Amino acid sequence: MDFNLTEEHLMIQQAARDFAQNELLPGVIERDEKQQFPTEQIKKMGELGFLGMMVDPKYGGSGLDTISYALAMEEISKVDASASVVMSVNNSLVCWGLQTFGTEEQKQKYLTKLATGEIIGAFCLSEPEAGSDATSQRTTAIDKGDHYLLNGTKNWITNGSTASVYLVIAQTDVDKKHKGINALIVEKGMPGFEIGPKEQKLGIRGSDTHSLMFTDVKVPKENRIGEDGFGFTFAMKTLAGGRIGIASQALGIASGAYELALKYSKERKAFGKEISQHQAIAFKLADMATEIEAARFLVLKSAWDKDQHKNYDLSGAMAKLYASQVAMDTTIEAVQIHGGNGYVKEYHVERLMRDAKITQIYEGTSEIQKIVISRSILTQ
Ligand code: CAA
Ligand code: FAD
């Protein structure tokens, strides 16, 4: 067993770390406060190859492995989880889904632009009545011969207004239940496609989250991904990899908060010594460091499973479940270690604490991860 990262992995990690420090850190507090999308920063991420990391270079991607992607996600998320969710959706849900299951025409038309960040994508599964219960799709895509007629509402869509391409899951044949669901590529601007107002959020406030409304949107048949009825399997397979991305995001939020708390604890003095010299604080740091290390092993193991073409449904769900809990616990303690300073924006840890919570909710809540994990271990 080799726990060493390769030279290439270390280079990518360093490049992401430099980008986060130089390009994301300045302005991150303001973007959070104003709910401002990191437009310029996302453009640069595209130029540096962070938006199509695992895409084949022949489609404009960086051709890297999942471990590289997880390392970059961690570094970006240490500083700006709003930027990293854009990166995560584009890489692991949109680009991966298209590269793995799209036709050559779909790849040429959409993937090449998505992988370079020329445009960004969105993944649209959730609905007002279908969140965790994802098979209960109410959005319909009725087969009209050469096109589908799309009607319905999607909720909580990341990149909702900034995306140009949307992978939309919809029910074609109700009688066939989840086997009658399709995944369609919908373009912004198609007649009948409307974008709802931006959600006002607790965390990841720089990312844009919207409802989407479809009224008689004509989607050409060639925009269907996979065979008729493949849509739910497409969503599940894509989300299995997406969860590795969100686990990496949670790990980054936790390690970012830990690094800030460690530094602060060595600078701040109380009762004549640095607060890190008080055992109550030192033990908090010990717990944080241990839990982050454990989360990192789970994240990298799930990324490695994917790279080795092993099944990663279980390891990805475990990584997301655990890393998101560590993100929550660590950020709360990081605020505590900062005392009053932890409660104000300029010290960053309050934002990381608000950002941490979403990692327990999206791409399958923690309860859903436990369903995935328990079903997997009980059928082994
Ligand atoms: N790969 C392939 N197929 C899978 C699969 C996987 N990982 N997981 C399930 N399936 C298949 C099953 O085999 C089954 O098909 P068959 O009947 O042909 O065998 C079908 O999907 C239905 O599966 P279940 O019977 O297990 O369905 P269920 O109703 O019990 O639900 C669930 C399963 C795991 C709870 C699923 O509904 C789920 O994952 N829910 C959470 C939804 C979610 O994660 N949403 C995230 C939205 S995207 C997002 O959030 C992005 C973002 O924030 C940035
Ligand atoms: P519900 O499913 O109503 O769950 C409510 C509670 O009940 C949760 O605690 C849940 O764990 C629990 N629960 C539900 N069923 C069970 C069960 N069987 N057993 C035990 N507990 C259960 N979706 C997209 O498709 N694309 C996106 O880009 C996207 N981005 C998002 C961005 C943000 C900021 C947010 C908040 C959400 C986003 N989502 C996106 C939606 C997200 O995936 C859902 O919110 C999530 O899957 C939970 O669904 P729900 O909100 O309907 O909660």
TrEMBL record:
Pfam families noted in UniProt: Acyl-CoA_dh_1, Acyl-CoA_dh_M, Acyl-CoA_dh_N
Organism: Flavobacterium agri
Sequence ranges assigned to domain Acyl-CoA oxidase/dehydrogenase middle in this UniProt record: 122-217
Gene3D superfamilies: Acyl-CoA dehydrogenase/oxidase, N-terminal domain, Butyryl-CoA Dehydrogenase, subunit A, domain 2, Butyryl-CoA Dehydrogenase, subunit A, domain 3
Swiss-Prot/TrEMBL keywords: FAD, Flavoprotein, Oxidoreductase
Chain coiled-coil ranges: none
Listed cofactors: FAD
Family: Belongs to the acyl-CoA dehydrogenase family.
Known EC number: 1.3.8.10
Residues in Acyl-CoA dehydrogenase/oxidase C-terminal domain copies: 231-378
Keyword Oxidoreductase annotated: yes
PROSITE patterns cross-referenced by the UniProt entry: ACYL_COA_DH_1, ACYL_COA_DH_2
PANTHER family named among the record's database cross-references: ACYL-COA DEHYDROGENASE (PTHR43884), ISOVALERYL-COA DEHYDROGENASE, MITOCHONDRIAL-RELATED (PTHR43884:SF12)
Entry protein name: Cyclohex-1-ene-1-carbonyl-CoA dehydrogenase
